[in-house]
Write a structure and sequence with these properties.
Number of domains: 2
Structural class: alpha+beta
Radius of gyration: 20 Å
Order of helices and strands: EEEHEEHEEEHEHEEHEEEHEEEHHEEHHH
Distance between the termini: 28 Å
Strand content: 25-35%
Number of strands: 19
Shape: globular
Largest sheet: 10 strands, antiparallel
Helix content: 25-40%
Number of helices: 11
């Protein structure tokens, strides 16, 4: 072993070690969900102003809710092998788990990260942000309901931790979020269609200078990779983003096609390059980018949302490709982090834009 995950032992029963700036939790199970244990550890780390480091074996997989919560709090996931460690997001080999928080020059990814896992299903992956003015009555959850409704999926359960037990209710979620203000809220949701198509989602709500920012991330199992036509998945993605445009003030949303497992879980392996399918630019993004009419016309932009202050919806490509070129034409070379700062967006949006860039290097490999 080239390093260890030890340090000063912590008093918390689920924390294995404390190091300067981070706390470490070793998880050895097959699945790490956003249970009460992980939620409590992440909450403690946030209160103490430190980051959470989760160390697991290579076979462990994270639920989307667990992965989102870890990322939202600045944490990291490191894989322990028999001889070394590596960053579960990028595959970067590490001398010690804590090295995941230090930058280094790109190098060859660990061989376990590059090993081809069994992936047989298409996934639709949505990432978007919506702004709500607090001077008006706010009802959260409209974007995820729009996505689910467009795909014929019934949202069933939600909650702060897994397993999800409460029946889905926008009003209940809005009220619980209001009570937690000014603290941020992160909620997990699940839904299913009659044909067993599954949806998992997270909602992150934060107070900003502009009001409330609601970041929606959703993962939908789209079935066997050979069972869908290339265009039908793009049709679904475009319809889903169109359905989100009338809820609050949409900022930006991106839909991508990915290859993954039916359980929608995050694995510590290099994902196949995703394909951008559809892009929604809300009014603030349209104003910030100042898109020429010729670009909008050539890219097939469709005005959606409020007639008084519309956004623009673009079908970018399909599962065969073409989406990167259209995305580049629309964004006009705008750097994801700069666009995120300009629109005061959750960093998850910038990450989604980087993932859609085939030239994005290590960052483009995260799923």
């Amino acid at each position: 072993m080239t390093g260890d995950a030890t340090g000063e032992r912590a008093a918390h029963p689920l924390v294995d070690a404390v190091s300067p700036g981070c706390i470490t939790w070793e998880h050895r199970g097959d699945v790490l969900a956003l249970g009460t244990g992980l939620s409590d550890v992440l909450h403690r780390a946030t209160l103490e102003g430190v980051r959470t480091l989760v160390v697991t074996p290579a076979h462990t997989r994270l639920t989307p809710a667990a992965a989102s919560a870890l990322e939202a709090t600045g944490g990291a996931w490191v894989v322990r092998t028999e001889e070394a460690f590596f960053d579960a997001r990028t595959g970067r080999p590490l001398a010690t788990p804590r090295d995941v928080f230090t930058g280094s020059a790109p190098g060859p990814a660990h061989e376990r990260f590059l090993a081809s896992p069994v992936r047989s299903h298409l996934q639709l992956v949505f990432t978007g942000a919506t702004r709500h003015r607090v001077s008006r009555p706010v009802r959260l959850g409209g974007a995820v309901e729009g996505i689910a409704g467009a795909l014929g999926i019934d949202l069933a359960t939600w909650g702060a931790t897994e397993p999800l037990a409460a029946r889905w209710s926008r009003d209940d979620m809005t009220e619980r979020t209001r009570r937690r203000m000014p603290d941020e809220s992160l909620w997990a949701l699940a839904g299913r269609r009659a044909d067993e198509t599954a949806l998992l989602a997270t909602l992150r709500i934060a107070r900003t200078r502009e009001g409330l920012e609601e970041t929606t991330r959703a993962w939908v199992d789209a079935g066997s990779a050979g069972a869908r036509s290339a265009g039908s998945l793009a049709d679904d993605a475009t319809a889903a983003l169109r359905a989100t445009a009338g809820h609050g003030m949409p900022l930006i949303a991106l839909a991508m096609a990915a290859i993954g497992a039916p359980d929608l879980a995050r694995r510590a392996s290099a994902p196949a390059t995703p394909q951008p399918l559809a892009l929604l630019l809300g009014p603030p993004a349209v104003a910030a980018l100042r898109l020429p009419d010729a670009v909008v016309r050539d890219a097939g932009g469709e005005r959606v949302g409020s007639p008084r202050l519309p956004g623009l919806l673009f079908r970018l490509g399909d599962t065969r490709g073409g989406g990167w070129d259209t995305l580049a034409r629309v964004l006009g070379g705008a750097e994801p982090d700069a666009l995120t700062r300009l629109l005061q967006l959750d960093p998850a949006i910038a990450q989604a834009l980087r993932e859609a860039d085939p030239e994005g290097g290590d960052d483009a490999r995260s799923a």
